[in-house]
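Good morning C.,

I know you're traveling, so I'll keep this short. The sequence:
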Amino acid sequence: MRVRTPVFVFVAALLALVVLAGAAASARAAIRISDLDLSLNDRAVTVNIMALGAVPPGFREGLASGLPAHVRYTVELWQYNRLWRDTLVLTRVVERQLTYNVVSKEYKVVSVTGEARAPYATREIHEAQRLLSEIRGLTLTPSIALDPAEVFYVRVFAAAALNGENTLIGRIAGTAEETSLRSQHRTLPRTP
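The tokens, ready to paste straight into the viewer:
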């Protein structure tokens, strides 16, 4: 029986290289959620999100060549269960797209999914990045639909990708980034 040691060593080295490249890509992830605020009041459950680095520096060249950048926020409302698995109550997806027009030298932010918002055009990349990064007053559900005796929290996943392609290869190459954050536990306010 002949063992093919060089092939095994090559495959092992290639696998280690892919794992290290993935770790390096995740270590330099530019997008991160800096502020997540869950508000449970007597009318509705609302969320405010602020993500920093929604347009990482690696996206600038792709934007200048005409590729759109997409930022997708997946907001999940969870019910905390102390002795069992937590229950997913609902999921909302908000996606925005950033394009650059070479002729007019303007950035345009358009809401693709999850919200009705007029397109916004600006000449400043920082203003466009601010519009992509902020979600204010996203209403998840009316408070009447929730049990006031239960404890809830929100989990947010944010993903940014050139041309909307968020794959492992894209994350390794630096054309896609993703992150997540979980809020603190909250209860509905008691009404007298």
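Safe travels,
E.
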